[in-house]
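>> received
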Amino acid sequence: MDIVDVYYKNACSLRKTAKALSVSPQKCRKLLIDCGVYQSERAQEIKNDFANGNSICEIAEKYDTSIKNILSYLPYIKGEYDRDSKTTRWRLKKQATDGSL
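>> returned
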């Protein structure tokens, strides 16, 4: 992640940094937030809402945006973001039928 930090400090632009690293601006923002480099009023509001116990869905509704967009403003969280994914549903179904993974 140091390379993202270096590019951002040199470019002084989220979009230029994302383009230089061939990642989306959302991915770039998330990496920079995770490094503690990127700060904005919106990012701080979303971080505070999440810290106060609001769910990702509630925050997305509050700001009238997608869950993916809200996640791009939060640092990486260990674990699954989407517990209802196909893979998780398949794994749970398999466990229920034969008791294994």
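>> The chain has a mean pLDDT of 79.
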